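Hi W., the magnesium ion complex you wanted:
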Amino acid sequence: MNRSTEEVLSFDEAMEKYDPVLGFEVHVELNTRTKMFDAAPNVFGDEPNTNVTPVSLGLPGVLPVVNRVAVESAIKLGLALGCEIRPVSHFARKNYFYPDTPKNFQTSQYDEPIAENGSVDVELEDGTVFTVEIERAHMEEDAGKLTHMGGAAGRIQGADFSLVDYNRAGVPLIEIVTKPIVGAGTRAPELARVYVALIREIVKNLGISDAKMERGNVRCDANVSLMPKGSATFGTRSETKNVNSLRAVERAVRFEIQRHAAVLDSGGTIVQETRHWHEDTRSTTSGRPKSDADDYRYFPEPDLVPVVTDHEWIERLRAELPEPPAERRKRLKTDWGFSDEEFRDVVNAGVLDEIEQTVSAGAAPAAARKWWMGEIARLANQREVEIAELGVTPQHVVELNGLIDAGKINDKLAKKVLAHVLEGEGSPAEVVERRGLAVVSDDSVLTAAIDDAMAQMPDVVAKVQAGKVQAVGALIGPVMKATRGQADAGRVRELILEKLGVQG
Ligand code: ADP
Ligand code: MG
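Structure:
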């Protein structure tokens, strides 16, 4: 447990006194086959230190070569962010002691990022659109991964030694930096989450990254500062590093606003520093001081040629861009005929792709929505996993729905079937078959259960015979129970009314 000693003001009070300013640095790991500057494979989760070459190990005398696909990914991302693409850009060395980067410098871009001056429209949960200006998107390489041993919960403090895995060293990264974001007010934490979600959606849509936050494919550093209400001068910022889930981004921004407010309120000053987010305490702790004048001794990388992006190349990549997420949403909303609220709920639940695939596999949009937003969301929530990771496929939903439409199962049985599908018992049709979960419409089975129910409830029988047809429901219930929910309720009703000689 990482106890925070920081004082915080309530969020509401902080918001009465201060206006937040935000800035995000989002790192996107590309899914290229090989690394940024060498032919080592870019694969997640392999045996440590197997995906390395002399280049990614920084051995003397090696020469890096730029990965063309990574540059194309950067151009596509730049275009999707509405940026200008630089005709000529250079790589630079950012010098620093990096225990996880054996070269002791990171190859990055400095004053000549490949893409700059863009903007994205971020849609908040209530439909408000907030424009976020993009300052730059530049190419660089990832560091290796350190694992600290012997201390508490993998922390460097108190560790006896550290292990280093260079598989990730040299993996292509694009860093997207926003201009300072002013005017979000109380929506600042939400904006942070929705902005990062949009970047994730864009890179996934472009197909340039696996975009899995839990694997660190998309990582956000969140800069926060406060200005007293009425002031237009930015305060000192803190930079919370590597926040690895959407929920954490929102919480980290919220926490930092509350912490800054408490410091400023008591007459203190904010230290410009990096901070670390801790999910367990939902708070940040101090990292290292970081001034704007930190001197990384940037200089042009002498071993790499400049990246020259001719007009034709850019236009070819522009023509290959997929439909932008905002336009795609508009199209799907119209196609599916969902209300504003229904559609927004779908987007916020992150099941747009799933519903789209379910619909294109043959389900009606309303049915697809009902499943993904209802029972499947409930199961994911219960198991505390993302809906996409639950293991239900669009194909399963189409099949389940088809079984309902054909009268083979009812809604209740469908939920049972789904639970068995998740246990790995096969497709919905297979589960129905193997477990005998189909609706019972065999009259002889039903008649026995109906006779029982009528014998037990003569008063209800009398009511129905006296013309109160709606009372028949009281007889259907026990029949459903006796058949473990598998009776065809419509057929049961018909049979009862027939027996009592009453017109339905
Ligand atoms: P560094 O890497 O040193 O943190 P960057 O320029 O890469 O610097 O990123 C800084 C981020 O912080 C940018 O998104 C920028 O817009 C934002 N920012 C700058 N000043 C402030 C401020 N006073 N308050 C909040 N965010 C800020
Ligand atoms: Mg930065």
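The pocket of magnesium ion (ligand 2) is lined by residues 25 (CB under 6 Å).

W.
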